[in-house]
Design a protein that fits this description.
single chain, mainly alpha, elongated, binds calcium ion
């Protein structure tokens, strides 16, 4: 046989093989595509005749947020998303929630639970409510947490100036807990006094002075914790020596440390 013809036959053979392979490949792809559609259709059909309640139960049983979207009652839909988000520790799902309060609550809980599970306090910064940020740090701070970990937290909270949260900064608070731990470990009162947040400062000093937070040693109507918060002297009933007790001045909205 001519050499040329031989090569042509081999070439034709390979071309046929490639065409057959391509045919099966394309056909297969089509099958996968059709199957995905079928699944979507099946889900729709599966939920079509179910009541909101039944869909809700199914969604939360199977942790499937796509089912939640089929619930007609918006409040139930929101709660459905919230439960699935918390269960899957996926705060992204919370973004589908219509009601702002439920959405925030969903994010706070799912993020806090995620930190609880993986111990990464950086995630606490993603919580948008300062009160929950504080709780997240308190609950998940451990003996290994360092100033460096505290600095890495990026604060996503909105500028919350209400309810005494104006001064709360997550990095600073976290640093202060490190100070607290070091002060107690080294029995270092000066370090306690470096703490900015008065609750933590009072806790630190009460540990090192071995005084209960609720005791009122100088009988002026302010307990130890309040004396630290108002920066009065826990051993002097009249810190500014004006004849009025520290506790009386606070009660009547005067300044226990000076004029007025
Ligand atoms: Ca007192
Ligand atoms: Ca006092
Ligand atoms: Ca006084």
């Amino acid at each position: 046989m001519n050499k040329k013809i031989k090569y042509l036959i081999i070439l034709a053979f390979f071309i046929i093989i490639i065409i057959i392979a391509l045919y099966f490949f394309i056909n297969n792809k089509k099958d996968i595509f059709v199957n995905e559609n079928d699944v979507e259709k099946d889900t729709d059909e599966k939920l079509l005749n179910l009541s909101d309640n039944e869909i809700y139960n199914l969604a939360t049983e199977e942790n499937n947020e796509n089912y939640c979207s089929k619930i007609k009652d918006i409040y139930s839909q929101d709660v459905c998303y919230k439960l699935v988000a918390i269960s899957k520790l996926d705060s992204e799902i919370c973004n589908k929630i219509d009601d702002e309060n439920i959405r925030l609550n969903c994010k706070n809980i799912s993020l806090s639970k995620a930190v609880e599970k993986n111990g990464n306090i950086e995630i606490c910064g993603q919580i948008t409510e300062k009160k929950s940020q504080k709780k997240c740090i308190n609950d998940n701070f451990n003996y290994k947490t360092t100033i460096n970990d505290c600095q890495k937290i990026i604060d996503y909270s909105s500028s919350d100036t209400t309810n005494g949260w104006k001064d709360f900064e997550i990095n600073k608070y976290c640093n202060n807990i490190v100070l607290f731990r070091e002060a107690v470990a080294d029995n270092n009162i000066a370090k306690c006094k470096e703490i900015f947040y008065s609750d933590l400062k009072a806790g630190c000093l009460s540990r090192l002075y071995n005084i209960s937070l609720t005791s009122d040693n100088d009988n002026d109507g302010l307990n130890f914790r309040d004396e630290i918060i108002y920066q009065t002297d826990p051993d002097n009933p009249d810190s500014d020596d004006d004849g009025f007790l520290d506790g009386e001045e606070i009660k009547n909205k005067y300044d226990p440390k000076g004029e007025g």
